[in-house]
Design brief:
CATH superfamily of the largest domain: Type I PLP-dependent aspartate aminotransferase-like (Major domain)
InterPro entries: DegT/StrS_aminotransferase, PyrdxlP-dep_Trfase, PyrdxlP-dep_Trfase_major, PyrdxlP-dep_Trfase_small
Protein name: Pleiotrophic regulatory protein DegT
Number of strands: 14
Keywords: Aminotransferase, Pyridoxal phosphate, Transferase
Shape: globular
Radius of gyration: 20 Å
Strand order of the largest sheet: 1-9-8-5-4-2-3
Structural class: alpha/beta
Helix content: 25-40%
Low-confidence stretches: none
Pfam families: DegT_DnrJ_EryC1 (PF01041)
Largest sheet: 7 strands, mixed
GO biological process, one term: polysaccharide biosynthetic process
Distance between the termini: 21 Å
Number of helices: 12
CATH topology of the largest domain: Aspartate Aminotransferase, domain 2
Order of helices and strands: HHEHEHEHEHEEEEEHEEHHEEHHEH
Mean pLDDT: 98
Number of domains: 2
């Protein structure tokens, strides 16, 4: 089976580096908010070309802490997409704010600016973009829209590690960007982890307070916070893996190019290619098919793993059926959810495996 992710096939040298990093933490005797976290935060901020990175427990907490740091909460509306992991909307709700759902653009599955404008109200405080599948597009128009509306531009970067738009990294366009380091991410640890990136010193300081019980200094709780701290072990692992990031990212793009060049089945449609290669880091490579479920089963029968991201849009989830949405509906998100299929696109894939995926898709009838 050609797997969606194959951690057991990772380079032996990387595994050795991870083991050494973990051993260093164990021998240090310091496991929470120490030098490893500080070092990784500095390294990640540098890679993202921003002033600050704040390590937290996971990507969902990064969004919640970011919202709370901006005092976005009770009665405030945050516009986002129904085509995302549930954590995006759950974080808004946990922060006390009200999610509002706008539709997507069919060619990219990214948030549609025209739909967002229809969702604006006097209570709108922010737009939370989700750089779905690893792509960053049209950020100039989003900056203009948010500035004109007088609202915050926020970024969910859980799938878009170091994707660029005009020499600026995902997460650096608005007030903050929220990253996840879940194991399957382009930069992932061996468990949960996350980070907020920002250029605002005040926001960074507030995020540090919120992640650590709301402590302004030890035992002094200036407000109600969370227990959401990237720990030393995962920070050390992430630092080791960061050294392999460019290599792994380049391989994902090679695989994606092979798919764009090689998949020719008229029953299978490809998402829009990026304007520039650096705009998409291919956390996921997604194809579209009207016979998606049959294609999924066919691929498994022919030794190709696959997944659906995401089969149930947020507004069809039981707790979210009454959420306010675009008055014209969310038809593009609903159609996309019935057609989208993610195929393997991870850096451990061999050229032979890539060719077998292409061959299987092209032979589907």
């Amino acid at each position: 089976m050609i797997l969606m992710n194959n951690f057991q096939a990772e380079p032996a040298e990387l595994i050795q580096q991870e083991v050494a990093a973990v051993e260093k933490v164990i021998k240090s005797g310091w496991y929470i908010l120490g030098n490893q976290v500080s070092n990784f935060e500095s390294a990640w901020a540098s890679h993202c070309r921003v002033n600050y990175a704040i390590g937290v427990g996971n990507g969902m907490d990064a969004i919640e802490i970011g919202l709370r740091a901006l005092k976005i909460g009770s009665g405030d509306e945050v516009i986002t997409t129904p085509m995302t992991a549930f954590a995006t909307v759950l974080a808004i709700i946990r922060a006390g704010a009200i999610p509002v759902l706008a539709d997507i653009e069919p060619a990219t599955a990214l948030l549609d600016p025209a739909s967002v404008e229809r969702c604006l109200s006097s209570r709108t405080r922010a737009v939370l973009l989700v750089h779905l599948y690893g792509q960053v597009r049209n950020m100039d128009s989003w900056i203009t829209l948010c500035n004109h509306a007088g609202i915050q531009l926020l970024e969910d970067c859980a799938q878009s590690h170091l994707a660029f738009w005009k020499n600026k990294v995902a997460g650096a366009f608005g007030a903050w960007g929220a990253y996840s380091f879940y194991p399957t991410k382009n930069l992932g640890t061996l468990g949960d982890g996350g980070a907020i990136i920002t250029n605002s010193e005040a926001l960074a300081n507030q995020a540090k307070i919120l992640r650590n019980y709301g402590q302004s200094q030890r035992y002094h709780h200036s407000e109600l916070g969370l227990n959401s701290r990237l720990d030393e072990m995962h920070a050390a692992i992430l630092t080791a893996r960061l050294g392999w990031f460019d290599f792994f990212s380049a391989r994902r793009k090679e695989i994606a190019k092979a798919y764009f060049d090689g998949i020719k089945n008229p029953l299978v449609h490809l998402m829009a290619e990026p304007v520039e290669s650096k705009c998409h880091v291919y956390h996921l490579f997604v194809i579209l098919c009207d016979k998606r479920d049959r294609l999924s089963n066919y691929l498994v029968e022919h030794g190709v793993d696959n997944l659906i991201h995401y089969p149930i849009p947020v507004h069809h989830q039981v707790p979210c059926r009454s959420i306010r949405r675009d008055p014209k509906g969310l038809i593009h998100a609903e159609v996309h959810a019935t057609r989208c299929l993610s195929i393997p696109c991870h850096p451990q894939m061999s050229d032979d495996e890539v060719n077998k995926v292409i061959e299987a898709i092209n032979e589907f009838k």
